[in-house]
Amino acid sequence: MRKNEFETLQALERHATPFTGAAYAEALVDRAGEARFALIGEASHGTSAFYAERAELSKRLIVEKGFKFVAVEGDWPSCYVLNRYVKGDEAAGTIAAEALRHFARWPSWMWANREVAAFADWLRVFNDGKAAEDKVGFYGIDLYSLWESMEEILKYLGQKDGADLQAARRAFACFEPHGQEAQQYGLAANFYGEGCEDEVVELLRKLQDRWRTADPGDREEELAAELNALAVKGAEDYYRTMIRNDAQSWNVRDRHMVAALERLLAFHGPAARAIVWAHNTHIGDARATDMSEEGMVNVGQLLRESYGTEVYAVGFGTYEGTVIAGRAWGRPQEAMKVPPAQPGSLEELLHRIEPSDKLLMLDDAEQVLREAPVGHRAIGVVYDPEFERGNYVPTKLAERYDAFIFLDRTTALTPLAVEEVLN
User: Given this model, what pLDDT does residue 309 score?
Assistant: First the structure.
């Protein structure tokens, strides 16, 4: 055993306490509850316990600490339907599965699953009977919804007419020749001067901050129009940048998520506090990984740079189990085996201490957990267990997160069946 590995193992053993669920994690709730931004991660987009424990922790932050909304690594249009559902809008659905049918684009299981449905149903009950300004929202802050967001803007402005509708039509007309093919748009923008940047900037300018002067009943719809325009602007930048530089397109995406999050905070008022659900690779500080060597930033880093100790990041990990993922982008979802973690990795060391669930509170962590990188598994929507070795991110644990939840054995989440989503 290498010296650093032995020292890391000893430090982990000293900091680990039994984890019996977020419902009983008093110290974690108290500490995260002091923050303005509670960032709650996941080590995959397809593990049931990550979603379930994240939901339980969020419930406590909402009920006991007064957090105002949940912002997730999802698209604005589909998440906004779920937001309307949890706030009691019958047109969005009478059960969560009806609202979740709008998550139809691959990887649909990431949000259209029973774990999210259960949280959405809880949130609807929690919001029932409350004044509009007191209801807790559910929003998407990602940027992949270029065409869906354009359609939502046109639909909304079509009810109003005027110069704003004309600006939206100009932006839509600019994108239309590319047939909703993101790569085709990126190539055209980079090599043929056929970009739509000017059109989307003008559209966002026209829709920005209109919610501030809107009638109370229209405020959130005006916000939705602005956030859809922001998603169009972010997506245009992302797809144009992606052709040239993967690292920079990553940065465009995470900077967009922070911009969307800050607009949501402005909408909810100066005292508002936010819960953020996203993968560990987004919420854990990038400077504590090898991402920084590639010139990459992420949500956790950007928020810490702006808000310091008002940010509290909780990471997740597992030793083994099953997960929902696809073998390649766009391939069918399947339940895959997650093999035992690689020797010497964070997950293997925590399992080696004892094969049980653990919580690590890292505020006063020892130097070895701040300075010695250890491999930490990350599973995306694309996964192949046969190439497991490439899924580990060198991580200075206590610099990346403020707390870490280790679940020794986990199982795949439950995607909503097609008939549940469509009926």
Answer: 96
Predicted confidence at residue 245, as pLDDT, reads 72
For residue 422, the model assigns a pLDDT of 43
Counting residues of the chain whose pLDDT is more than 70, the rounded percentage is 97
C-alpha distance from residue 75 to each of 13, 40, 101, 313, 408 (Å): 39, 18, 13, 22, 31
CB 76 within 8 A of CB 224: yes
The shares of helix, strand and coil residues in the chain, as percent rounded to the nearest 5, are 55, 15, 30
Q: Which residues face 405 on adjacent strands?
A: 316, 359
* Under 8 Å between Cβ of 287 and 296: no
Reported residue count of the chain is 423
Going 323 to 347 to 26 to 310, the CA torsion angle's sign is: negative
| Cβ density class 282-296: b for 16+ within 10 Å, e for less | bbbbbbbbebeeeeb
User: What is the distance between the alpha carbons of residues 245 and 187, in angstroms, rounded to a whole number?
Assistant: 13
Cβ burial of 308 (10 Å; 0-12, 13-18, 19+) is exposed
Residues in Cβ contact with 283 at an 8 Å cutoff, skipping those fewer than 6 apart = 39, 40, 41, 276, 298, 299, 300, 313, 314, 315
Query: Which portions of the chain are predicted below pLDDT 70?
Result: 1-3, 161, 192, 418-423
| DSSP secondary structure string for all residues of 3-34 | HHHHHHHHHHHHHEEE---GGG-HHHHHHHTT
Cross-strand partners of 138? 70
At 3 the pLDDT is 64
Contact in structure between 57 and 359 (CB atoms under 8 Å): no
**Which sequence spans correspond to the domains of the chain?**
3-140+273-422, 145-247
List Cβ neighbours of 39 (8 Å cut-off, separation of 6 or more).
Answer: 276, 278, 283, 299, 300, 303, 311, 312, 313, 314
Query: Which amino acid, 156?
Result: Y
3-state secondary structure of 118: helix
pLDDT score recorded for residue 418? 47
**CATH code, 3-140+273-422:** 3.40.1660.10
State the Cα–Cα distance between residues 197 and 202, nearest whole angstrom.
9
In one-letter notation, the amino acid at residue 186 is: G
